[in-house]
């Protein structure tokens, strides 16, 4: 759990696919409880690892 903030911010900066980049950036940087980082984990990081949803096809 100590590394979760770093992993979520690194993922958001480098691999985020979506329409609300500024919103997620603000939430990840400002909030302190960790809940948004867990939400981000399930909505973006895990689908990216599994290549599902919006992360199924990544154009480089």
If you had to describe this structure to a student in words, what would you say it looks like?
This protein has 60 residues and is mainly alpha-helical. It has helices spanning 4-15, 21-30, 35-50. Helix 1 (4-15) packs antiparallel against helix 2 and helix 1 packs across helix 3 (35-50). The protein starts with a helix and ends in a 10-residue tail after the last helix.
Distance between the termini: 30 Å
Count of helical regions: 3
Q: Please summarize the sheet with the most strands.
A: none
Helix content: 55-70%
What is the H/E order? HHH
Morphology call = globular
Compose a concise summary of this entry.
The protein has 60 residues and is mainly alpha-helical. It has 3 helices and no strands. It has helices spanning 4-15, 21-30, 35-50.
Keywords:
60 residues, mainly alpha, single chain
Q: Which helices and strands appear, and what pairs or packs with what?
A:
Layout: H1 4-15, H2 21-30, H3 35-50
Helix pairs in contact: 1-2, 1-3
């Amino acid at each position: 759990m100590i590394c979760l903030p770093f992993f979520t911010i690194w993922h958001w900066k480098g691999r985020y696919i979506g329409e609300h980049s500024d919103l997620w950036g603000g939430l990840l940087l400002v909030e302190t409880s960790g809940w948004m980082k867990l939400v981000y984990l399930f909505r973006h990081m895990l689908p990216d690892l599994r290549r599902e949803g919006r992360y199924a096809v990544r154009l480089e």
